[in-house]
Amino acid sequence: MIPKILGVLNITPDSFSDGGSNVIPEVALQRAHEMIKEGADIIDVGGESTRPGSLSISLEEERRRVEPVLRALNGLPVSIDTQKPEIAEMALDMGALMVNDVGGLRNASMFDLVVERAPTICVMHMQGTPATMQLAPHYDDVVGEVFGELEKTANHLLEKGLPANKVWLDPGIGFGKDDEHNLALIKDLSTLVGKGFPVLIGVSRKGFLGRVTGEEEPLRRLPASIAVQCIAQAQGVHAIRTHDVRETRQAAMMLRALS
Ligand code: HH2
What we know:
The longest helix is centred in the middle third of the chain and has 18 residues, at 142-159. The chain is globular, with a radius of gyration of 17 Å. It contains ten helices and eight strands. It is an alpha/beta fold. The chain has a single domain (4-258), classed as Alpha-Beta Barrel (TIM Barrel). It starts with a strand and ends with a helix. The structure holds 6-hydroxymethylpterin-diphosphate. The site of 6-hydroxymethylpterin-diphosphate has 21 residues, from strand 1, strand 5 and strand 7.
């Protein structure tokens, strides 16, 4: 098995690497079909950038961005990347299979919605909010704290009746973490995998890759992204979130053939 591949479809003017590319629904649909052809298992649709320093947008604005695209994607396997329960509910009503919450279900209404509708849920860890998360992230024990918080939320969902295979955990690379934090979490992914829940990892084109390699242009960080994704796959992650589906799949297949 190779990890499931979530192809990123940002319907935003300002995402850090693909902002503006997919704001026209027809273009988004075309990109979604292209990613499916390249081997994406799920299309992860997001209407709000969460890059460091970004401010939250209104419910109306997020709805305006994602609703026509979700309508156009009807019938494809879709995940909705949102922190807003109203958007998640709309997406589920329109056939989405999965909710991807970078807020890690800190919003009680989102938690309740997930319990009620029981979709596949990705619980991502974030310290703080995108507006301020990179100002001074601090942990005494980053691996223990991040994995411990994820496990606690996952166990709450199990208590409410969700099956473990529908509760995906994601350490949230770059979300309230400095470079050392990110590297420590990636090196120890096998510990998170060992907790018995599917693990998702998203590193595609992220800033820490640029700081480690000196590559300032996000679109040129594919080799670094692939390297980290291979290390993650070797530690047993269940899914990879990426902008570059074909390349990710090719690397994953090669790694599987050699394992
Ligand atoms: N990263 C981003 C957005 N959503 N979801 C999960 N589960 N894990 C991640 O690592 C993750 C995520 C940020 O990347 P991107 O969507 O490319 O950028 P932006 O937030 O600027 O739209």
